[in-house]
Design a protein that fits this description.
Blueprint lengths: L2 H12 L4 H5 L1 H9 L1 H12 L2 H10 L2 H5 L3 H17 L4 E3 H8 L3 H13 L3 E6 L4 E7 L6 H31 L1
Antiparallel strand pairs: 1-3, 2-3
Length: about 170
Amino acid sequence: MSNIEDTVKQSLQNSYQFDDLMKLDAVKQLEKSNNKLYTLLTIVGSGTYEDYIKFSSTNDVQQISGINKDNLTTKMRVVGLCELCNGRSELSYGDISNKLQITEDEVEDYVIRALSAKLIEARLNQLEKKVYIIKSVQRNFGDEQWKQLQSLLAEWKQSVTSVQKTIQQNALKQ
C-alpha cells in the first residue's frame, strides 16, 4: 500500500472536506492504480448518499477504506445533511429522514453529529420537528460556488449603491 493510499484512508476517516486532496496529482493517479479507493473518495467528497449506497452495495467499503461500513455510512449521512442544509433556513424532520433514509427519531442524532463536527450551525425545535439552519459548510467550493459568490457580491454592491444614492438624495433635500 502506498503512502498516498494511507493518506486518503486517513482523510476518509478524519475529514469531511476533500477539495484540496482531490487536486493532488498523486490522488488523481489512484484513479488508475486503485480505482475503487479513488471512486469512494470521490463519492464521499462530492457524491450523494444514494451514490454511496449504490457503490457500497457492490463493493466492500471496509476493505477498500479500512473504515467500518457503519461509520462510513454515518459520515455520508452527516455530509448529506450538510448538503441538504445549504441554501435553506429550515428543514422538517420528515425532509431530513427521507433524504438520509433514517427514521424521524434519528434526525436529532445526525443534526448533533453535524453540529459537533462544526459542519452546520442550527437550532432544533422538537415540538415543531424542525431544524432552523443558521449556516452550513459548503462541501466543495469550485467554479460554480465562485460564480454564485460573485453574483451575491454583485447584488450586495448594487444594494449598497442604491442605499448610498437614497442617502445622498435625502441629504440634498435638507
